[in-house]
Amino acid sequence: MTLRLGVDIGGTKIEVVILDADGVERLRRRTLYPSRDYAPALECLADAIRAAEKECERCSVGVGMPGFLDPHSGLVENAFNTPYNKRPLKNDLEKILKKETRFANDANCFALSEAMDGAARGCAVVFGAILGTGAGGGVVAGGRVVEGRGGTAGEWGHVPLPWMTADEFPGPRCTCGRRGCIEQFVSGPAKNRERDAIGEDAAMARYVDRLARAFAMMINILDPDVIVVGGGMSKHEEIYTRVPPLLRKYTYHPDPRTLILRALHGDASGVRGAAMLWPA
Ligand SMILES: [Zn+2]
After folding, report:
1. Terminal CA-to-CA distance of the chain, rounded, Å?
2. Cystine design at 64: which of 18, 166, 185, 274 (Cβ 3.0–4.6 Å)?
3. Burial category of 97 from C-beta neighbours within 10 Å (exposed 0-12, middle 13-18, buried 19 and up)
4. Residue 152 Cα, ligand 1 centroid: separation in angstroms?
């Protein structure tokens, strides 16, 4: 039996998991980067994978990370908080490991994990939304990640907030350099800014309406069976109770059927989905 090794690359650490064919975790380890320099961080990543591989006879290797891997240049893009940004990480890692690897954006891995054996298990079209320090997104259709031509499919966080009101326009400056991105309205830090300014109840009322608009846009474009929500904000029950009745204010469909569900695997979804980039 082939085991599947998944790696989640974060800003400060590398997490490795090994899944068996049933999705049961055989091993899970965390490693901190020795430095922010590329060469030692690459070595550290390869070592973490090789050490975990000793626990299994044959492993496939899937890697999830922030930003994306440009399929044309082979370079990591927009993974600003990792030591691998603007580097040919996949090529370099495969040279060291002497095997093929698969890479995906961490939100895509999250969506894949939840579509395979999480909250959206068995659903044909799934949109995964991570509401944490940022707002990530990923699309899974028919059990496969939709990567896109340039590797950025599903990046809803860097679309302007839809149906923006006059007092919301043009919106705060985003990490991507533009103004008014959804991320600047629905991330954890965005919610906290509002709470500090206008209090929890008023901030939550604004939050659920903005999230309803952001989800309604995705429903208009993709009409997924399920939107599965992860990240630190996913613990707020209001996302599952107050957002769904607001959707019809904004969707083209008068009675949208898309379910909004909390992630089943929580923070583990990213690393599990990375392993699932290869079939069992
Ligand atoms: Zn942005």
Report:
1. 9
2. 274
3. middle
4. 13
- Is the overall model pTM greater than 0.90, yes or no? yes
Q: Please state, in angstroms and rounded to a whole number, the distance separating the CA atoms of residues 4 and 22.
A: 11
Report CA(222)–ligand 1 centroid distance (Å): 20
Q: Report how far residue 253's alpha carbon sits from residue 233's, in angstroms, rounded to the nearest whole number.
A: 27
pLDDT per residue as tens digits for the range 210-265: 999 999 999 999 999 999 999 999 999 999 999 999 999 999 999 999 999 999 99
* Residue 60 CA to ligand 1 centre (angstroms): 33
What distance in angstroms lies between residue 267's CA and the mean position of ligand 1's atoms? 23
pLDDT of residue 1: 57
Which amino acid, residue 13?
Answer: K
Distance, CA 272 to ligand 1 centroid (Å)?
Answer: 27
User: Over 90: is that where the pLDDT of 26 sits?
Assistant: yes
Contacts of 196 (CB under 8 A, 6+ apart): none
Q: Mean pLDDT for the chain?
A: 96
Residue 179 CA to ligand 1 center (angstroms) comes to: 7
